[in-house]
Design goal:
- The chain starts with a helix and ends with a helix.
- The protein has two domains: 22-170, no CATH class; 183-223.
- The chain has nine helices and two strands.
- A hairpin with a 3-residue loop joins strand 1 (132-135) and strand 2 (139-141).
- The model is unreliable at 1-6 (pLDDT under 50).
- By secondary structure, the chain is mostly helical.
- The chain has a two-stranded antiparallel ribbon with strand order 1-2.
Length: 223
């Protein structure tokens, strides 16, 4: 039996297994004042320095010690998005929602060590759509179409560009162990014995084929 006849079906099974292990994006919902409250946004608007913004975000969004490397990465992520909101002159409600969107997308991304790039983009788009169309109580018209385009462009050029960086930091490493069992060979047999057994079976099969060919040639040349 050729290796390809075993390898490709096995690869197909593994690929489908990974597909089912990657969770689907959760249902989008309104995120106004979920993480950054009105009082937090008042302080952020009054702050004029990055350390002051980081102090407010750390208190509102991070539960553990900011000295930890993972928490420092998250703090930088949120701070950069707050600065982006300031550059785009977003109001308090828009800034609060955008930070919550980034937080939810990041949490969804780091739920699995598997590649869920498409699902992250879909989830981010659905959350933005939920805050750009007036359809209470399911969605609100907080962002305009131009602002949605700006946010998606910034999200792709920042978070998605470093997607595997965040995946590497916040998810455990996956190791895939594959074991093969052969019919007629005990599972507790060591590698050398298995190799010898397989080789002996191949020799016997080849010897039987040669004997059959000899008999067949004799029949063809028999007069």
């Amino acid at each position: 039996m050729e290796i390809s006849s075993i390898f490709y079906p096995l690869l197909y099974i593994i690929r489908n297994l990974f597909f089912f292990l990657v969770s689907q994006p959760p249902r989008s919902r309104v995120l106004l004042w979920v993480d950054l409250k009105h009082s937090d946004m008042e302080e952020i608007e009054k702050s004029n320095s990055i350390p002051e913004i980081e102090r407010i975000l750390c208190r509102a969004l991070l539960a553990s010690d900011v000295a930890q490397p993972k928490q420092r990465v998250l703090l930088e992520l949120y701070t950069n998005h707050v600065l982006f909101c300031k550059e785009q002159h977003f109001n308090r409600e828009q800034t609060s929602v955008l930070i919550s969107i980034i937080k939810n997308v990041h949490q969804f991304n780091t739920e699995t060590p598997l590649n869920n790039t498409d699902h992250c983009l879909t989830y981010c788009s659905e959350l933005l759509l939920c805050h750009s169309v007036r359809r209470p109580p399911f969605s609100i018209d907080l962002f305009s179409s131009e602002q949605v385009t700006q946010i998606l462009s910034y999200f792709i050029n920042t978070y998605m560009r470093h997607y595997f960086f965040y995946k590497y930091i916040f998810t455990p490493e996956v190791q895939l162990d594959i074991s093969l069992s052969y019919i007629g060979i005990p599972e507790d047999t060591d590698i050398e014995e298995t190799a010898q057994t397989v080789l002996q079976m191949a020799k016997e099969k080849l010897r039987g084929r040669q004997n059959w060919m000899e008999k067949f040639n004799k029949v063809l040349h028999w007069k």
